[in-house]
Amino acid sequence: MTGMLARVLAEIRAAPPGTGLDAVARRVGLSRGEVDLAVDYWVRRGELAVGEVGCATTSCAATSCAGCPLRGPHRSGRGLITISPSQ
Amino acid sequence: VARVALVGNPNVGKSTLFNALTGARQRVGNWPGKTVQVASGWWSTPAGTVELVDLPGTYSLAPSSPDEELVRDLIADRTAGHRPDLVVAVLDAANLARNLYLLSQVLETGVPVVAALTMTDVAAARGLRVDVSRLAGLLGVPVVPVVPRSGEGRDLLAEAVCAGRLADGACRNRSQPAFSADGACRNRSQPAFSAGPPRSVVPPGPARTDDPETELAERRFAWVRTVIAESVRRPERDQPTRSDRVDRVLTGRWTGLPVFLLVLWAVFEVTTRVAAPAQARLSSIVDGPVIGAVRWLLERADLAHTWFAALVVDGLVPGVGQLLTFTPLMLIMFVLLAVLEDSGYLARAAFVADHFLRLIGLPGQAFLPLMVGFGCNVPAVAGSRVLGGARQRLMTVLLVPLVTCSARLSLYLLLANAFFGRRAGLVVFAMYLLSVGLVLLAGLALRHTLLRGRPREALVLELPPYRRPAVRVVAAQAWQRLRAFLAKAGGVIVAVVALVWLLTAIPLGGGRFPADQPDSLYAGVSHAVAPVFAPAGFGDGPAASALITGFVAKEAAVSTLAQTYHAQQPAHPGRPGDLGTRLRAGFARTSGGHPQAAALAFLVFALAYTPCVATVAAQRAEIGLRWTLLGVAGQLAIAWTLATLVFQVGRLLL
Question: For B263, phi and psi rounded to 5 degrees?
């Protein structure tokens, strides 16, 4: 018997690239809020990694970002959020 | 005095509620022994004053940050001296799942709890109807709807906290009252609230997994789902929000890309049109009063006829001045980018670009470094490390130089304004389009050579909510980016301008130093290279010298043009120092009367050839010398072929 948390993780692992969490929610029959909760749990457990496009220092591992348009006092939560299985 | 703690997820209105309850009677400071800031204040309730503590927002009592650790320590750790007498759990009615998960953990600690239900208006707008009485019954704690901003429900919450009863009867059927009698919170010597024993909210059932932690989480999750299913009425079909409706257009399969291109075009159109007067004014100031003042100073210092004067007047001032004239342009563009980013649109643009890239088979995560490449190719090359496979990294590192970086923008703007006037914005936009097209085409080509059999990747993408851009954030962001650009470009330009001046000062076949421009070493090399560009319509020394400098750093190409054209035609009739006029004359001469076609070809070459030596160095570090040299050769070949093609076709049309 598989729990819903495990089902969400499996769905994200199998999702085609570019899938949104709304699509994941539809596939597993959960509300979006419930999927957010599941993602949060798996991120805490280290199974999923969440990144944000818009912060070069974390997303590109660059040693220098002078001139980068994504650099600066970026307001967290304004970029595209990526959720991937941890390596 | 009794202590009450406000606990809840981030962004549920917790701090707004705290302000509404305590008013001005509050203080903010680090929690003893922690670096976490906590606000506390005094809350007047019908039964007396209690200390209210606004704990940091958290999603779980299994901490993953110092903030969450403090909340866990305070609530779950019974040995801590600061344990609150009661917790007000703030629940977001529009996102109950996450809130209830935290509540389940809080309830398990045994601390008395009152729930404050916020965002009921947002929930109603989404078609969600929360049955407050049913929710309170299922949770076993009083639930009080509150509107933190207006203070609505404040009195009921106070009553529930101190008396353990609710006016709407939501908790009348609770089997056990959570609190002691009225007035208990006045005196700390008596137990303020009757703290019950820790209780588990999770229902028993067959094990779903071997991992005890996940098993417990699954049970909590199941409890959360049950509570929501029995207390929240949902619409039969989820009602799309305004954000959903906008997203359907901005990220739609058929509409996303045209909107993205339209926005990009608008950015460059506004940038060039709005900034043009400021640019012209700055240019005239540099060419007139600034040069005049520098000459006057040099004469006063008796240096007017020295090599130093030549370096300053013919090299540094025109070069740095040319960069400064682009400051308004860059500032406006950075402001527009910041507005797009802070509004949430830039994330949509990235989403659209990602979707489009996948269609032609580029690796899913490659858009991360490619997006960064629009700013600067150097961190973008380093950013390829986020990609899993060696072939993907190789392909991305080879593609990044084709992404037009911000350093190239100054060159685009100069040429576009000089040759295309009011259509300058369109030309710059076309350069960005061409850059995207080149990346896609080169990616397709590489896919069939280097990226065969690429493994499938999972990457879920989420969009941030739309927001009204904050003036403070936009201003700070634009300023920091402009400062970074000027700092980097300024340093490089001074170095390159000095080097170019030195090379232009060294006489090729012996003679006086500094040499006249046509007799210099730099002119000799440039003229030797120039015939290579003749089929592209810009086969003369100054254009070639700018491209050679641009190989070192694109930021310096504009200043080299200013330097070389100024030296070549020092006394242009009418508008001395007007680089645009000199460029038009120079390109008209080399192109056989088709200066616009030659300028377009020059721009295309500048776009496609090697961005700068720093990028080459970064590429070498990532993919080795052999692939780097192959990439540089490929870029030069693409640049020359495209430029020649553009000029040969363009001369028939322009």
Answer: -65, -45
**Which residues, at least 6 apart from B562, have a Cβ–Cβ distance to it below 8 Å?**
B318, B319, B321, B322, B579
Distance of residue A1 Cα from the nearest chain B Cα, in angstroms: 5
Classify burial at A63, counting beta carbons within 10 Å of its beta carbon; exposed 0-12, middle 13-18, buried 19 or more: exposed
Mean pLDDT across chain B, nearest whole number?
A: 79
Q: Which residues of chain B are within 8 Å of residue A21 when distances are taken between CB atoms?
A: 460, 462
Nearest chain A residue to B331 by CA distance is A69
φ, ψ of residue B393 in degrees (nearest 5): -60, -45
Q: What is the ipTM of this complex?
A: 0.80
Instruction: Express each pLDDT in B208-226 by its tens digit.
Output: 677 888 888 999 999 999 9
The angle that helices A32-44 and A21-28 make with each other, rounded to 10 degrees, is 110
Q: Mention every residue, 6+ apart, whose C-beta is less than 8 A from residue B494.
A: B316, B319, B320
pTM: 0.62
Which chain A residue has the Cα nearest residue B486?
Answer: A67
How many other CB atoms are there within 10 angstroms of residue B349's CB atom?
22
**Chain A: closest CA distance from residue B22 (Å):** 29
Q: For residue B341, give both structure tokens.
A: 């980013």
Nearest to B366 by CA among B444, B278, B258: B444
Cα distances (Å, whole numbers) of residue B105 to A19, B17, B98, B108: 31, 22, 11, 5
